[in-house]
Design a protein that fits this description.
alpha+beta, 5-stranded mixed β-sheet, 3-stranded antiparallel β-sheet, 8 strands, disordered C terminus
Amino acid sequence: MLQYDDNGFYFFLLSSLSFYLIPSWYRIIGKVYSAVMVKDADIGAVARTSDEKVKAAKLKHDKMNSLKDKAFLINLGITVVLTILFFVLMFSVSEDGEVSSFDPFSILEVDSGADNKTIKKAYKKMSLKYHPDKNPNNPAAEAKFMMVAKAYEALTDATAKENYEKYGNPDGKQSLEVSIGLPSFLLDTSNRNFVLMAYLIIMVGIIPFCVWRYYSNSSKFGEKDVMYDTYSWYHHNLSEHSLLKSLPEILSGSAEFRSRNKPLADEKGEIQKTMQTVRSQMQKPKFNHPVCIKGNVLMHAHLCRKTAGLSEKLRDDLNYMLRCSSSLIDAMITVCQHQDALQTAVNCIQYGQYVTQALWTKDSTLLQLPHFTKNEVEHCSKGKNAVSGIKEYIALEDGDKKGLADFNATQKEDVLKTCSLVPDLSVETKIFVDDDEDDKVYEGDLLTINVKLTRNNLKEGEKAGLVHAPFFPYPKQEAWWVILGTSQGKIIDIQKVTKADRVVDHEIKFLAPAQGEYEFSLQVLSNAYVGLDQTHQVDLTVNDASVLPEYKVHPDDAELDDEPTLFEEMMMQNVEEDSDSDDEDSDSDEDSDSEEEGIKELSAAERKKEELRRARQKAAAAEDDDSDDDSDVEEVYTEK
C-alpha cells in the first residue's frame, strides 16, 4: 500500500527550492560583483574632462546604491531564509536516511535481531494502538495498522519472510516500489481543515494570481520594451506636421511615466515655480493632465539647464524620464517610419540630441563644450576666425580657437579634449546593382546604396567611445541615424548605425522605381551631438527595362516545369484505376477517331502528360465539390 513518506517529501522540497535558490544566488552574486569588482569604464563612469567627474562620481554612487535597492534586499532576505531551510532539510535527510522502504523491524519498533516473542508482543501492542475501531475516521491510523499487520506477517510467516529476505517485500518480487512524497501529517484528521484551506489558497488564489500578474505585465510591452499604450499615444499625437517644440510634451505623456509622475500635493507649488522659469521656452501646452504638465516642465528644466532648484524627489523623477528617453525616442522614430513622416522622424532624432546635451532650439551648439557660456559663444561668433557652430569650431587649429582667454589650464584642456571627442564624420555614397553587367539602373532592379561613414577624429584601429554629455546622467554610446527619403518627404529607409569602428559601411536596399530621373535625400544624423547632421543629395537615373535583352528559358528548365509535383504524383496514384478506365475509353475513342481522321498514336511522354491532365481535372472537380458550402458562405458574406 502506498504511504506518505516524509523523506520523499524532503527530497521533493529540496529539488523545488533549488529551482529558486540557484538562479537567485547567481543573480545576487552577479549584482554584488558588478557593484564591487566591475571596472568604472564598464558602467560608463569615465571622467575624460572635469565636467564628467561629477557624472562619473554619481554613476559610481548609483552602482553601490544598487545593493540598497528595496527589491534586491527583499530578494536577498527571501533567499537567505530559503537557504537556511534548504540546509535544515539536507540535515534531516542525512539523519533519516534514504527514501523509506518496507522495513518490518522499524515498523514494529523492534531491533533487527528480536526474537518471535518480542515481535509478537510489539505487534499486539501496536495493533491495539492503531486499530481502526479505536481510531475512527483516521486514515493515518488505518494505514499504520495495515503496515503493522504486514510487518508481523513478514517476520512470522515462512513464505512472507522468505519473500522479504529475497525481494524486500513480503508479497514477493515487486515491479516498482512507490511512496507518496508528501509529509505524513497531512493524514492527521486534526489537520484536515488546515490542509484544505492551504490547498484552496494555493491552487485557487496564489497560482492564478501569479499567472495573471505575469501575463498582465508582459502583455503591456512591445518592441524595445516600450509599452503598447505608449505606442498608441505616439500614433495618436505624432503626424507629419508635428513640430520639434511639441515633442517634450508628447514624450511626457508616455505610459511609462503615468504612475510615477502623478504630482503630490507638496509638489504642485514647486512645479508651478519651475514652470515660470522655463515658460518662455515652452510651446503652449496641448494637454492639461497633471502627469503631462509635470513631465513637460521637468523636461524643459533639463533642456534649459535649470534643474539646480529642483527637489530631490523631482530630480529623481527627471532622471527616470531621462533613463527611459533613449528607448522612447527610438519608439517615436519607429512610429514616424510607419506613418511615413520624414520631417517628424528628423525632429525626433534632433530632439534626442537636445535631450542628451541639455540644449534647446535657440541655444548655440557651442554650449556643448565644457565651461562655455553665452559670453564665450558671443566671443567666438565675432572677429577673426569667427564660427557659428561646433562643427566649424573643432575644424579650427587649436591655436585659432577662440573663447579660451579667461579659462585656466585645466579648462582649456577640457575644451580641447572635448573637441577631439566630438566626431568629425565624412560620408561617401555609391549606387550599384548586384551582379549587373553594366553600371546602368533599370526599372525593377534591386538597388543598393552603400553609405560609407568615416570618423576622421579616430586613428586606425580606434573605436568610438561614450558620448561626451555631462548633463545627461547616464552613459550613452555614439551612433548615427541614416535616412533615405524622397523629395516629397517620404521615407524609403531609416536605420540606426551603432557600429563604433572608424570606418563603417551601411547598405540601403530597395527596388528601382519607374523610368525617370530621381533626386533622393540622404541624411546622416547623430544620436547625441547637436549641429553635426549632414544632408546629401543622391541622384538616380532609371532606364526602361524593355531595352534589356529578352530572357529565354532554357529547354531543360522548360521540361522541368512540365514535371509533376509530389502532390500531383500522389493524385495520379489515387486515380490510377479511374485513369486506366479512362485510357480504355480513350483507346476506343482513338480507334474510332483513327478510322475517321487517322490520328497518330501518342508517345509515352505525351501519354504521361495526358494522364497528368486528367488527374488535375479530377482533383479540380473534387475541390469544386468540397467548396460548395464555402462559396455559399462567401456569397452570404458579400451580401451583408
